[in-house]
Design a protein that fits this description.
It is built from four helices and no strands. By secondary structure, the protein is mainly alpha-helical. This is Pro-sigmaK processing inhibitor BofA family protein.
Length: about 90
């Protein structure tokens, strides 16, 4: 089982590298991705320390950041909604 997972990881990494270098995507996507991460962290920071909702604290970790990077501003609303329903 472990060998199969390592094989899948190696094949997916090779395909991603092939797409990155063969399509001439460039490095512009890296700056956009970095900007999205910074904006996601800023959105979570605003929710945590704005004082509008004192009962909500969203931890700033890779899972919450990735949810906000992928979903955008609705991702922050999703995390706030999850936090309010889980309390």
């Amino acid at each position: 089982m472990k060998l199969v997972l390592i094989g899948i990881l190696a094949v997916s990494l090779a395909l991603l590298l092939y797409i990155l270098f063969s399509r001439k995507i460039g490095w512009g996507w890296l700056s956009r991705f970095g900007l999205h991460i910074v904006l996601a962290a800023l959105g979570i920071y605003v929710i945590n320390f704005s004082g509008l909702m004192t009962e909500v604290y969203i931890p700033l970790n890779p899972v919450t950041l990735s949810a906000v990077v992928i979903l955008g501003l609705p991702g922050v609303a999703l995390l706030v909604g999850l936090k309010l329903t889980m309390i």
